[in-house]
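Re: that chain you flagged

S.,

Sorry for the slow reply, it's been a week of failed gels. I finally had a moment to sit down with the sequence you sent. For the record, here it is as I used it:
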Amino acid sequence: MIDSIRSAMRASILEMVGGGSGPPVAFLTPKGDPGLFGPNSMVWRVHGDFVSMMIGGIGSLALQALHPMALAGVWDHSTFRQDLKGRLGRTAYFIAATTYGPKEMALKIIDKVNNIHQHVNGIDELGRPYSAADPNLLKWVHITETYSFLKAFQKYCSPRLTALEEDQYFKEMKVLGEMMGAIGLPASLVDTEREMLSYFNELKYGERAKTIIDLLTNFPSPIHTKPITLLISRAGFANLPNWALNFINKEAPSPMEKLFLTTSVNLMAIPIREALKNGVAAHSYKRVYGLDS
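Prediction finished late last night. Pasting the C-alpha cells below so you have them in one place:
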C-alpha cells in the first residue's frame, strides 16, 4: 500500500515537469562509473534535492529571460511558451544526466546540446544577431543556473554547505560550463554574484521577458498539482536577488512572507522527498558502489 501511494505521488510529481514516472534504471550501469563528478562532489549533493532544484529552476529561468539575446533563442526555436512542462522535463533530464549519469551518458547529452546550439541563431527583439553558441550567452545561462540552484539548496535543505563547499560547487560546475562552450566562468559564490551584476546593462524587461515572467508566475499545471506548482513558483521568485526583483517590478518578500514560504516549502517537501527517495541519485549511488538494485 505504501509503495503504491509513493509510486502514485512520484508519477504525479514528475508529471509537473514532463518527466517519466518509471524508475531511472539507465543510471544503474555501468557498475563503478562515477560519471563527471562522483558521489563525493558538491554537485551530487546540491542537485540531489528535487524541491530546491525546482525552486532554483524557476529563478534561473526568470533571470535568463531578462537577457534579450539569451531569451531570443528560446523564443524563436522552442515550444517553451506552449509547453513549459516539456521544457522543464528536458532541462531536468540534462541536469540529471550530466550530474549523475555515467560518463558516456553525460558526454552524449553534452554533445547533443552543443550541436543543437550551433543551429540556434537569429535576430533578437532589439534587432541584434544572436547565436546560442555565443560564449557570453552561455556564461549568463551558466551563472544564473548555478547561483539559483545553490541559493535554493542553502535555503531549503539541511545541512547547508559551508562557505568552502559553496565555492567547491562553483568550481565543479565550472568544468561542465566550459564543456558547454562558456568561458571565463567564476569559481566562487562571490565571483558569481559579481559576474551576474556585470551583465546588468545587457538586460531588458521587455514584452518578451514580461510574457515569460507571467508564465512562470502563473505556472500552468493540472488542478491537482496547482497548489504545489504555485508554491514552487512563489519560492522561485523569492529566491531571486533583490536587484532582479526590482528589475521585474516585484517586491522583495517581507520577513513574514519569507517565513510563510520557508515553512510551507519545508512541509510540502516531506512527502515529495519520500516519494522520490529511490530516484536518479539513489540509482547512481548503486551504480558507483556496485550495489544491488
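What I noticed first: The radius of gyration is 18 Å.

Talk soon,
D.
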